[in-house]
Amino acid sequence: MQYVAMTFWLLVIVFSALGVHRLWSSLVQPKIINTLLLPGTLVAQLGHILGLLVTGGTVNDTALVKDDDSGEPKTGSDPEPRVPLIGTIIIALLPLVGCAAAIYWVSRYFGTDIISRLEDAQGSSFDPLALPTSLAAFFNLLRESLSLVEKLVNVIWASDLTDWQTLLFLYLVICLTVRMAPLTGNLRGTLGAIFLAGVLAYLIDKFMQSPTGPLLSVWSLIVFCVAVLLFLLIISLLVTGVVHLVKTAMGQK
Questions:
Q1: With CB atoms counted within 10 Å of each terminal CB, which end of the chain scores lower, N or C?
Q2: Nearest alpha carbon to residue 191 among 99, 103, 85, 98
Q3: Closest to 75 in 3D by CA, of 98, 41, 25
Q4: Beta bridge partners of 74
């Protein structure tokens, strides 16, 4: 059951990242957004290219940011994998794995204090086994989500924001979590990759025969990513609403 929960929260992370990225791109040129998110864009791009190579694709023309209006990473003129079905999933999985691994190492070296204090603040909230299986559970999940975002803001506000390590950690986490959004044209592959990740985690757990399971060691990181993306999504929606309200008041379309 805990791996079903993990799959659910990975879906929340990916779609929250997609929502944040699209909202930002609607306010500012996507080329500028992807440039500002350069560390995350680089990791996602490298994962995508590696996925192409291991599935038989050809990479002969790459760029971190296209010169056109899309501003998306360019991965060559022959993106089709030679491995049917599973190739698309692998290509979508490796950018997610790359961003997740980068978040893990960044958190380990720069964000241990913030994550541990968020974990202490949340207590038993967001139990790995808790899924919205009823209407009451769904609304309780929404309340817990808002509470988690509030705790994240309090933890960050109480941190030393003059410390360059804290600022670097927050910047890199934003870049890496937002760039977990599926690359252009690879949404279906990303959905398959998430379900594959859940299956692989379950098989690894059965193989290791660990009493606690490998998921519990990374659950706090999953919750942290959910909190960051939900916070960014809320702020992005508010800013987008204000911008459109001002444009409407000024008579602009």
A1: C
A2: 85
A3: 41
A4: 63
